[in-house]
Protein: Prophage PssSM-02, structural protein
Organism: Pseudomonas graminis
Amino acid sequence: MATFYNEMAVMALDLITEFGQPVTLRDTIKGEYDPATGSTGPDTVIERSAHGILLDFTGQEFQANNLITAGDKKLKIAASGLNAPPTLLSKAIVQGKTWSIIPPLKEINPAGTPLLYELQVRA
């Protein structure tokens, strides 16, 4: 069964790569505090490439979820090929615009194989 879902993950990546667009996921790790100097070290920025589809929410989704505000988008990212999943602290850069991830972060994960991440993003 795992082989089937691994194949589906690759197929999702292929389709999103063909019909979607590049996405950069950016994570910032805060520098460590040094009590000897009384300062904090520099932040570390980690970026990873992904492929995704940026969509508008439907009218029904707006009515069913009061956490969606005007301008929010739905971002679907292929899980295959990512070395780490997005987190709520990650930023998504799509079409040169930086988006924050709003909870909940959904992982489409049948039988333990991540296929897709569905995010609500806000500029």
Notes: Helices lie at 2-19, 59-64. The mean pLDDT is 91. Residues 2-19 form the longest helix (18 residues). The chain has one domain: 2-122.
